[in-house]
Specification:
- The complex is a heterodimer of chains A (320) and B (510).
- Chain A has 320 residues and is mainly α.
- Chain A has a single domain, classed as ABC transporter involved in vitamin B12 uptake, BtuC.
- Helices cover 76% and strands 2% of the residues of chain A.
- Chain A has a two-stranded antiparallel sheet.
- Chain A is globular, with a radius of gyration of 20 Å.
- The C terminus of chain A is likely disordered.
- With 510 residues, chain B is of the alpha/beta class.
- Chain B folds into three domains: 234 residues, P-loop containing nucleotide triphosphate hydrolases (Rossmann fold, 3-Layer(aba) Sandwich); 171 residues, Rossmann fold (3-Layer(aba) Sandwich), CATH 3.40.50; 73 residues, no CATH class.
- Chain B has 17 helices and 24 strands.
- In chain B, strand 11 and strand 12 form a beta hairpin.
- In chain B, helix 4 packs across helix 5 and helix 13 packs across helix 14.
- The longest helix of chain B is centred in the middle third of the chain and has 16 residues.
- Classes of the chains: A mainly alpha (320), B alpha/beta (510).
- At the A-B interface, helix 9 and helix 10 of A face helix 10, helix 11 and strand 20 of B.
């Protein structure tokens, strides 16, 4: 596709440009601290870590575009990790099916959330929070009192940590594949168009004869599946699945989506922005930890920076 | 008061939005104790004018004077304090609060810092009485009131601020004929009390009846001001649209339509709001739905479209009885039904989405293969519709919310024409849009009917029903009380049957 640079900038929203600008600023600030921040090795490593968040943020973005939210991320990530490692313990067949099994479990959780939001009309904030608790209960029940198989398979480990082509992390390829599919889904399919329509005005979308309920349910299912996929990769990354492995991912996922310019009330946002948001959040976390600020200080700065950036975006929208 | 100094004056006011000139060189002279009508098509700058007057937006150039002294309104609050109250086209009431809460919302009476409910209720009662709407209970939640009653509350809310200048922007567009008469009596009384009123309406007969002075705007410019009654209606319309204005309504076919009905309804009931409705409509017919607002016309259209749950009775399309299971089933090719909803901003369009994306929403399935949108087919379909309806947009990728009201309504109609509907349900499609666009819509409807579509057309404007429809079904209290055919459709017949005047003892106003 041919696209001139100016038309490219015209198409990209201001928040997306701002997010990319912030990434550059962060890198420059980091490089003042240590020159290794601009080295390809460091950047690739950050992209590898960002890939896990990228998968979760992709699902979150679909749901946020609908004007909903998925708060079941933490324990659906854990479900993905734990169920895939569990399958790995069932012999060779289980080992082969470990990844799809983990993802399917997450999709199932998402399907239930989606059914509750789309058909039972329960607000997603409540329903997914409940699903999070249910997932937690199920996982605790499974691991409580005895030690099940919790080691990841070689394939999981390979996908999460391996570098097969040009020293580029495999996890990044996974994210690129999922991202490309999402860009296509949002831009070129009836599903994507319907997602935007629902996010803008669900009533008008329904009256236009769009399958609003089905699309909402499918979006939640995708979100659950992607969270679980991230869980699978995380289990591969640390070679085992453990309780509350998904806890650190909820706020960053929502923040990445919103920092990338997706309207938290739905209907507006581009996937490019989500990519920028994910990278931005990952770099921020990395720089804070490299600077060896203690945990409490890190959390403080991290939270303050996110709120500050959102305030800036909010102002921009009002002015334009 | 010195006769040479008007209560309010505006000179050379200009305003542009991002390069688009909404208003230039606007002049206006408002006198106390007179009703001043502002006329013009949508996009003529009327809304911008009153937004500047009421402090919602600030002018780029020019000045305003109140009692001869120059003033600036940096905010709506400042304009309010100066005695300018405005009733906008869009309602500003909060549905979940009571009538009294809404009326007193800007400055509720307080005791010890808490809202004094009793004082607030008295305050609201007085304001409602001043607006001629004593029958509205001040403690009723606004969401339980029909649209026309809400409009009365809106007027009461504006009057509660004791304005010297009251601006009404399309304030009667949601009102029933009975309410309009009441509002007019109130407005005339307010005028006699010395208030200046600025009145904006698309309904010419209202302006004829009400206005003392008129100012016409076109394309953001002030075109003419004149004393009411000094120009013929035709002259005024020409001033507004700047071209010869003839044949508002396309001619109707002479012969009644024959053939099998495309839509047959038998014994349709829904809770208490639709009672045993039966009728049939044939291809090529435009069937009007008349009556006072809120007599079940909306519900009937929604029931036909399959939106309401628990509807009993039979709906047959082309002789086949079907139970519509929502808009998706209704628009399917077997019934090919389209509903042009009442409120284009919340039900018809996704305002932030592009014109293109809005246009293709109902027809997405037919423009896609395996869920992937065929871009060239989409482009062709969009181009056809933009041309057919002469939609004026800078380009098709701008948000549909940036278009003028008339063009937005065209997009709503166009998006449904994409599925080539055989049955078209219209819910007051011309509300708040300009004369030129209305005329285009009437012609389009007749053309669609001539091409074999069956059209069910609800309108609150009696002129439209008279000018457009082959038959009119007058509804009252959820039932069809009278059918008017051909020459029987007159304003007198519509009004009398809407109020059920032929049956004494059952007369009920509002």
């Amino acid at each position: 596709m041919t696209m001139t640079l100016s038309s490219f900038f015209a198409r990209v929203d201001k928040p997306v440009l701002a997010a990319f600008g912030c990434i550059i600023v962060l890198l420059l600030v980091g490089s003042l601290y240590s020159s290794s921040f601009l080295s390809p090795e460091y950047l690739l490593q950050q992209l590898q870590v960002a890939s896990f968040l990228g998968l979760i943020a992709t699902g979150m973005m679909l749901v946020v575009l609908l004007g909903q939210i998925d708060l079941s991320v933490p324990w659906v990530v854990t479900v993905g990790g734990m169920m895939s490692t569990a399958a790995a313990g069932w012999g060779p067949l289980g080992e082969a099916l470990a990844i799809p099994f983990g993802i399917t479990c997450g999709m199932f959780m998402g399907l239930i959330s989606g059914f509750g939001v789309a058909y039972l009309r329960v607000p997603s904030m409540i329903f997914t929070l409940g699903m999070n608790a249910v997932a937690q209960g199920l996982m605790v029940l499974r691991t409580g009192g005895f030690a099940p198989q919790d080691h990841s398979t070689d394939t999981m480990h390979f996908l999460a940590t391996g570098r097969s082509i040009l020293n580029i992390p495999n996890a990044l390829f996974v994210w690129i594949a999922v991202g490309a599919a999402t860009i296509f889904l949002l831009g070129r399919t009836t599903f994507g168009r319907t997602v935007y329509a629902i996010g803008n005005k669900e009533r008008a979308a329904y009256l236009s004869g769009l399958p609003t309920q089905r699309v909402i349910m499918l979006a939640f299912m995708a979100s659950g599946g992607l969270s679980a996929f991230a869980g699978v990769l995380l289990a591969g990354y640390s070679t085992k699945a453990y309780q509350s492995m998904g806890d650190p991912y909820l706020l960053p996922a929502v923040a990445a989506v919103v920092l990338g310019g997706t309207n938290i009330l739905g209907g507006r946002g581009s996937y490019i922005g989500t990519i920028a948001g994910v990278i931005l959040i990952t770099l921020l976390q990395s720089i804070l930890s490299v600077m060896q600020i203690d945990e409490a200080g890190r959390q403080l700065i991290y939270g303050a920076v996110i709120i500050g950036m959102l305030l800036i975006y909010g102002r921009q929208k009002k002015v334009s | 008061m010195d006769a040479n100094i008007p209560l309010f004056q505006m000179n050379g006011v200009a305003k542009s939005y991002g390069g688009v000139r909404a208003l230039e060189e606007a002049h206006l002279r408002v006198e106390a104790g007179r009703i001043h009508a502002v006329l013009g098509e949508n996009g003529a700058g009327k809304s911008t004018l009153i937004k500047i007057m009421s402090g919602v937006v600030q002018a780029d150039a020019g000045d305003m004077a109140l009692d001869g002294a120059k003033i600036l309104f940096p905010s709506p609050k400042a304009a309010n304090a100066a005695g300018i109250a405005c009733i906008f086209q869009e309602l500003s009431l909060i549905p979940d609060l009571s009538v009294a809460d809404n009326i007193a919302i800007a400055n509720p009476p307080r005791r010890f810092g808490l809202i004094d409910r009793r004082a607030q209720r008295r305050f609201a009662e007085e304001a409602l009485a001043r607006a001629g709407a004593e029958d509205i209970h001040p403690l009723a939640p606004v969401k339980d009131l029909p649209l026309s009653r809400r409009q009365m509350v809106e007027i009461a809310k504006a009057l509660a601020r004791m304005p010297r200048i009251l601006i009404l922007d399309e304030a009667t567009s949601a009102l029933t004929a009975g309410d309009v008469a009441k509002v007019f009596a109130v407005l005339k009384r307010l005028r006699d009390e010395g208030l200046a009123l600025l009145y904006i309406s698309h309904r010419m007969q209202e302006i004829d009846e009400l206005a003392d002075d008129c100012s016409v705007f076109r394309n953001g410019r002030h075109v003419a001001s004149y004393l009411a009654g000094s120009k013929s209606r035709n002259d005024v319309v020409e001033l507004m649209i700047g071209r010869e204005y003839s044949h508002v309504f396309p001619p109707k076919p002479n012969a009644a339509k024959q053939g099998a009905p495309a839509l047959e309804v038998a014994g349709l009931c829904w809770s208490h709001q639709l009672n045993d409705i039966s009728f049939a409509a044939r291809p090529g017919e435009i069937v009007g739905l008349g009556g006072l607002d809120g007599q079940g016309q909306r519900e009937l259209l929604l029931a036909l479209f399959g939106v309401l749950r628990g509807v009993s009775g039979d709906i047959a399309v082309n002789g086949v009885v079907r139970r519509a299971r929502g808009p998706r089933a209704a628009k399917a090719s077997s019934s090919a039904m389209a509903l042009i909803p009442e409120d284009r901003k919340t039900e018809g369009l996704m305002l932030p989405m592009s014109v293109r994306d809005n246009l293709t929403l109902p027809a997405l399935d037919s423009l896609a293969r395996f869920g992937i949108i065929d871009r060239s087919r989409e482009q062709d379909a969009v181009d056809t519709m933009v041309k057919l309806l002469a939609i004026k947009a800078a380009n098709l990728d701008i948000p549909v919310g940036a278009l003028s009201g008339g063009n937005q309504q065209k997009v709503v109609i166009a998006k449904w024409l994409m599925i080539a509907p055989r049955i078209i349900l219209l819910n007051d499609p011309t509300r708040g849009i300009d004369v030129g666009t209305k005329q285009e819509i009437y012609q389009l409807l007749r053309k669609l009917a001539d091409d074999g579509a069956t059209i069910l057309f609800y309108s609150t404007d009696y002129d439209e029903l008279i000018g457009c429809c082959d038959r009119v079904l007058v509804m009252y209290d959820g039932a069809i009380t009278r059918e008017l055919v051909g020459a029987e459709i007159t304003e007198h017949a519509l009004v009398s049957s809407a109020f059920r005047i032929q049956e004494p003892g059952e007369i009920q106003l509002g």
